[in-house]
Amino acid sequence: MSDGVVSLTSCNTPLLQPVWDGIREHAGARAAPLWGACVAFSAHVLLSALFLGLDALGPRAPWIRRYRMHGKPISLRAWLRCLARISWKYALCVLPVSACMGYAQTRRSAAQRERAAAPSLLVACSECLSCLLVFDTFFFVVHYTVHRNPWLFKIFHQSHHVNTHPFALMALDSSMVELASQQVLAMWSTMVVGCHPVSEILFHLLNIWLAVEDHCGYDFPWALHRILPCFGGAPFHQAHHQRVTGNYAPYFKHWDLIFGTAINM
Ligand SMILES: [Zn+2]
Ligand SMILES: [Zn+2]
To answer: Is residue 52 part of a domain?
Structure first.
C-alpha cells in the first residue's frame, strides 16, 4: 500500500517539486506579510494592462473588436485614474489588513514549509478547485446580502457599480472594506480547504485571472466559460453590472441557478 503511494507520488511530483523547492528556498520573502498582496496587485495590474493593449489595438484590428461585448473601450486617462484610485485604497487598507493576516498566519506558514514534498498535479488542481468553490460560495452570500440591503450596498459595494461597462482593472475598483473583505474571504477559503501552499498560490493566481476575465469586456472563444460552461465568465458578470442585480456569484453559475438569481444580458 505504502509502496503504491510512494510510486504514485514520485510519478506526479516532478512537475511541481521544483516550484515547491523554489518557494521553500525563498521562504523568507514568501513569509513577509505584504508579499502576497504586492504580488497580487502587480499581477492584476499587469493582466489588466494586456486588455488595455487590446483596446488600443482594436481600431486597427477588426478581429479584436469582434469579441468586444460593448462599444467604446476605456480611455488611457480613465484607466490611469482608476489605477490611482485602487493604488491608494490598497496602500491604506489592503496592505495593512494583509500584514495583520500575514502575522496571524506566520505559525501556519512555518508548519507548511516543513512539508518536503510538493502535491501531485491532481491534488494541486483538486485543492485549487475546492478553494475556488468555497470562495465562490462565500462571495455569493456576501454579494447577495449587500445587494439586498440598500444601506450595505451604499457603503460597501456601490463604488464597484459606477461603471456599467466593465474593464479589467475595475475588478479592484471597490470600496476599501470590500477589497479587504475579498482578501479575507480568499484566505478563509484556503484555510477551510486546508490546502498545500503550492495549491494556495495556484488558487490566488487563478482567482486574480478570473476576476480580470470577469471584467475584461471581451468574450473570446478560448475564455474559460467557453470551455467549461459551469463558469459564467465575462458575459455573466457584465449582465450583473448592466442590470445591477442577479448573477451574484463571481465565477460559477450554480448558486444563481439554485436561488433563481441567474440573469442573461
Ligand atoms: Zn464586478
Ligand atoms: Zn454587485
So the answer is: yes
> Looking at residue 23, what is its pLDDT?
76
Q: What range does the domain containing 193 cover? A: 2-258
Nearest ligand, measured from the Cα of 244: 2
Residue 264 lies in a domain: no
Which of these, 233, 218, 239, 170, lies nearest to 55 by C-alpha position?
218
The gap from C-alpha 131 to its chain's centroid, in whole angstroms, comes to 11
How far is Cα 84 from Cα 133, in angstroms, rounded to an integer?
A: 31
Distance between Cα 58 and ligand 1 center (Å): 23
Query: In angstroms, what is the span from residue 153 Cα to ligand 2's centroid?
Result: 8
Ligand 1 centroid distance, CA of 14 (Å): 38
Predicted model pTM: 0.85
Say yes or no to pLDDT of 130 above 90: yes
Query: The C-alpha cell of 29 is what?
Result: 520573502
Question: What would the grid cell of residue 155 be?
Answer: 457603503
Structural domain includes residue 254: yes
Least confident piece of the model among 18-22, 47-51, 198-202: 18-22
What does the pLDDT read at residue 110?
59
Identify the three-state secondary structure at position 40. Answer: helix
User: How many Å apart are CA 172 and CA 213, to the nearest integer?
Assistant: 12
**Centre of ligand 1 from the C-alpha of residue 215, in Å:** 6
Task: Provide the domain count of the chain.
Answer: 1
Q: How many residues does the chain have?
A: 265
182/186 Cα distance (integer angstroms): 6
